[in-house]
Design brief:
Elements lengths: L3 H13 L3 H4 L9 H6 L1 E12 L2 E9 L7 E4 L3 E8 L7 E4 L23 E7 L4 E7 L10 E7 L7 E11 L4 H9 L17 H7 L14 E4 L9 E4 L4 E8 L6 E4 L5 E6 L2 E8 L1 E4 L4 E7 L5 E9 L5 E8 L21 H5 L13 E10 L4 E4 L11 E2 L5 E8 L5 E5 L4 E6 L2 E2 L4 E2 L1 E4 L4 E7 L4 E7 L2 H5 L3 E6 L1
Parallel strand pairs: 1-4, 3-8, 9-12, 11-19, 20-23, 22-31
Antiparallel strand pairs: 1-2, 4-6, 5-7, 7-8, 9-10, 12-17, 13-16, 13-18, 14-15, 14-17, 18-19, 20-21, 23-29, 24-28, 24-30, 25-26, 25-27, 25-29, 30-31
Bound molecules: copper (II) ion (CU).
The site of copper (II) ion (CU) has 7 residues, from loops.
């Protein structure tokens, strides 16, 4: 079933978002037989997994040999034929990549959805390496695991490194449409977290000195998955004694932010959202919805079992995998922690510094985007406008340095994602700094962040909250330039 927004977007597609100046650009389909032959086939499929001892019907994005997603190399082309083998329309977004806008995979913005039984071709150069992912931008399919890793190797892959990909997901046996309907009824469903109908204003919170308790985890999930499994039966990855691991963590959850907990290990964080940062060594790292962490781990010679856990923010529940050195006995890891974890903060974000930041430059254009909402009616918005087909794109121009001032006036954290461009975090709560390059940044309640990007990829682009039901409820807007 399509969501209301997806229907609106689809209806808008032909007329509203196809100005002649933009559609005159390169068409997405590679028409030469040669590029079609060398393309990687990705199939949208239905599959059954087991969660909490029960079968669950979910989606997959797989190659014909069952490989989930893609592992490729920087400098190669992203050359993919996407086949829709499910019984409904779909379209896949290559999260964090910078394709021509028509290949970005947002229904009604970039291209129409691919009908059941249809296919679409993608072909563009890969400008940078890193940890990325792909997911449906159609309706609420992402909640049903229509997603997969998209890994681009580069010189961060040392020959001695063992690569481990950790995909995190939230899972419910309730259909996403029912979850969304329940949220719209504002807490009337038994599995929805109770909440205050009043939204505190950011100014109000700031004046109080202490921010009111944040409102976390709208949806009560049945399970949290790490590579499709829970801690009742986790994935166990064998690691050589004194081995080195490059751990690539992808938060593919629809609504859940986590603290990654390396337990006794210390990890060296070397990249966020694919982009290299000055290393940060720690055993816990925050990871918001849609974000990625690249972490180097070094293991001792002695046999041992090491858990890599993701603890839900503000909660006791967790998921994870086990890295086993030598012939280690695998202990059972509980799926809850002793005490609830805190809410995510911006403490790590303030410490991150891009290895290759934007060249310092004055902004040519600044857009202030207040993140707003009406919790009681579950309407989420930007500058109090819930997105619909009549909202005009925000103007920018090719070649400009653009800054977005993001002010969270709600009590929920919002992971904000810009399509088609990498950005840099340049200011948090009034303090300028040369922060991380990213594609998704968490704006916590009451906070003000500034991100900067270069308008170097003309087209029509989405900018939105990556919490699936916030996105669908209207916290979404677009940029357009030629
Ligand atoms: Cu949001």
């Amino acid at each position: 079933m399509l969501s209301r927004r997806a229907l609106l977007v689809s209806a808008a597609a032909a007329a509203a978002v196809r100005p002649a100046t933009l559609s005159a650009q390169t068409a997405p389909a590679p028409d030469s037989a040669e590029s079609a032959r060398s393309a990687t086939i990705l199939q949208l499929q239905r599959r059954t997994i087991e969660v909490n001892g029960k079968p669950a019907s979910v989606f997959a994005i797989r190659q014909p040999d069952s490989t989930s997603g893609i592992i490729t190399e920087v400098g190669k082309r992203f050359s993919v034929r996407l086949q829709n083998n499910i019984d409904q329309p779909s379209l896949i977004h290559w999260h964090g990549l910078t394709p021509p806008w028509q290949q970005d995979g947002v229904p009604g913005i970039s291209a129409p959805p691919i009908p059941s039984g249809g296919s679409a071709d993608y072909d563009f150069p890969l400008r940078f390496g890193g940890t990325f992912w792909m997911h449906s931008h159609q309706g609420l399919q992402e909640q049903s695991l229509m997603l997969a890793p998209l890994i681009i190797h580069d010189d961060r892959n040392r020959p001695s490194d063992q690569e481990v990909v950790l995909m995190l997901n939230d899972f419910s046996f309730t259909s996403p449409e029912e979850i969304f309907a329940g949220l719209k009824k504002s807490g009337s469903m038994p599995n929805m977290t109770a909440r205050s109908p009043q939204m505190a204003s950011a100014t109000g919170m700031a004046q109080q000195g202490a921010v009111a308790a944040p409102d976390l985890n709208d949806v009560k999930y049945d399970a949290f998955l790490a590579n499709d499994r829970t801690l009742a039966d986790p994935e166990v990855v064998k690691v050589e004694p004194r081995g080195h691991v490059l751990l690539r963590v992808i938060n593919g959850s629809s609504m859940s932010n986590y603290h990654l907990d390396l337990g006794q290990l210390k990890g060296e964080l070397i990249a966020v959202d694919g982009f290299r940062t000055a290393p940060v060594i720690a055993s816990r790292f925050p990871i918001a919805v849609a974000q990625r962490l690249d972490i180097r781990l070094a293991f001792p010679r002695e046999p041992g079992a090491y858990s890599v856990l993701a603890v839900l923010e503000g909660d006791r529940r967790q998921t994870g995998i086990v890295l086993a050195v030598g012939r280690a006995a695998i202990a059972r890891f509980a799926d809850t922690t002793g005490t609830p974890s805190p809410a995510l903060t911006l403490d790590l974000e303030r410490r991150l510094h891009a290895v290759r930041p934007l060249t310092p430059r004055r902004a040519d254009r600044v857009h202030t985007l207040n993140l707003t909402g009406d919790m009681a009616r579950y309407i989420w918005s930007i500058n109090n406008i819930a997105w619909n087909k009549d909202v005009p794109p925000l103007p920018i121009a090719k070649g400009e340095r653009v800054e977005l001032v993001l002010i969270n006036q709600t009590r929920m954290p919002h992971p904000m994602h810009l399509h088609g461009h990498e950005f840099q975090v340049v200011e948090i709560d009034g303090k300028r700094f040369s922060g991380a390059m990213r594609d998704t940044v968490l704006v916590t309640p009451g906070r003000r962040l500034v991100i900067a990007f270069d308008a170097n990829n003309p087209g029509l682009w989405a900018f939105h909250c990556h919490l699936l039901y916030h996105l669908d409820a209207g916290m979404f807007t677009t940029f357009r330039y030629v």
